[in-house]
Write a structure and sequence with these properties.
Rossmann fold, single chain, three-stranded antiparallel beta sheet, eight-stranded mixed beta sheet, 227 residues, alpha/beta
Length: 227
């Protein structure tokens, strides 16, 4: 399937798959969307950096690595350890990775080499990116993924329901619910009513939030029980 690198409205890159009519990030701005949905509403608003310890993130869809890069920057900034697991069945190739302009757009050029190493690191093994950030990439579809690990935060960044309907079901959200620590947070850019109902059926407490630029709403789900 052909992939094309595009420039979004905030100057940062994304990737388009014309055949599927999808993009990896919002055309209104890749960086602004990731910061709003996954970093602010997920990583920072969860409060995990308010206390010292080892915190864990699961990302559904590593894609360009933008969410992982932004999470790395926050872990280093707060000097708090973050273990980051990302699933991706169709990783980017080296040529695509080297073209991405995130470090330049974020004015963090010294992270460029680390960003590329994150993509180049081996699959199914933990890579210590910095003292505060460890990455484990899993070349696997969410439908086939299983783990005994429990996560503080899940970035649900799969393609939209129209492109991947099998990943937006109550059964999938039940699976993710079981992978989360009590008090855990799941965030996604999608705000469709059918998705919200699927999350609620899985046991989550769900709230609509203001969406990123170009999108009215997003969803944040919490595992509030202490089972």
């Amino acid at each position: 399937m052909k992939r094309e690198i595009i420039i979004t409205a905030d100057g940062s890159h994304s990737i388009s798959i014309p055949e599927m009519k999808v993009t990896y990030h919002s055309v209104h701005g890749a960086i602004q969307e990731s910061k709003h949905v996954f970093i602010q509403a997920g990583l920072l608003d969860s409060g995990i950096f308010d206390y010292t310890g080892v915190h864990s993130v699961l990302e559904i869809g590593l894609g360009t690595g933008l969410n992982a890069l932004l999470s790395l920057l926050e872990a280093d900034k707060h000097k708090n350890r973050l273990y980051y697991t990302a699933l991706d069945l169709y990783p980017l190739n080296e040529t695509e990775i080297k073209q991405l302009n995130y470090c330049e757009q974020l004015k963090q050029p010294h992270y460029k080499a680390l960003f590329e190493k994150m993509h180049q690191s081996g699959w199914e093994e933990m890579f210590e990116v910095t003292d505060h950030f460890r990455l484990t990439k899993t070349k696997c579809d969410l439908l086939d993924y299983s783990t005994k690990d429990l996560f503080n935060i899940i970035y649900f960044d799969a393609f939209a329901p129209a492109a991947q309907p099998e990943l937006w079901t109550a059964a999938i959200f039940e699976k993710l619910y079981r992978m989360m620590k009590p008090g855990g947070v799941l965030v996604t850019y999608c705000s469709k009513s059918v998705v919200r109902r699927a999350m609620q059926a899985a046991g989550f407490t769900v709230e609509k939030m203001q969406g990123p630029r170009g999108k009215r709403e997003m969803l944040r789900a919490r595992k509030v029980n202490c089972e």
